[in-house]
User: What shape does this take?
Amino acid sequence: MLAGHYSAAFLAKALEPRLPLWILAIAVQLVDVLWALFVLVGIEHLRVDPSLPSNPLDLYHMPYTHSLLGALAWAALAAAAVFAWRREWLASLVVAGAVASHWLLDWVVHRPDLLLWSGSAKHGLALWNFPVVGIAVESSLLVASAWLLLRGRNRAWRLRRGILTMVSALLVV
Assistant: This one.
């Protein structure tokens, strides 16, 4: 899931309009950014398996970023950083929710490669194996969440234009 993660950023922005959308966009992708870094330095591992349907990545070792416990830990750290920066509990909790949403949204599309904690059984509904369904679900989440955010009466034109541009770009990707 790529585009679908941003639906959580849009919902978070609707919950806490004072938070910048760019912070929320980083929050919903924080787990994947850390995952990429951890793969590059050899902490987590993947292999490419061209026989897999749709997505050839076999994500066989991701206990620190893509376990539920790991996602919750990153969410807590992000919340602490936001609280240190803004001294606002609501903003901190909204950012934590945005970070934690990553695991739940990945659970929908990933093959069973997501852990609850290191060493637990692996989970995932595997919509990646059905690309048309997976793209439809992601696109629907993205458009619905953008609509919920844009329906607010006091949204500045600049924010509306930015959201529409972001949704359009994500749908193209």
Notes: The chain has a mean pLDDT of 93. The radius of gyration is 16 Å. The beta strands are 45-48, 57-61, 114-115, 122-123. The longest helix spans residues 89-109.
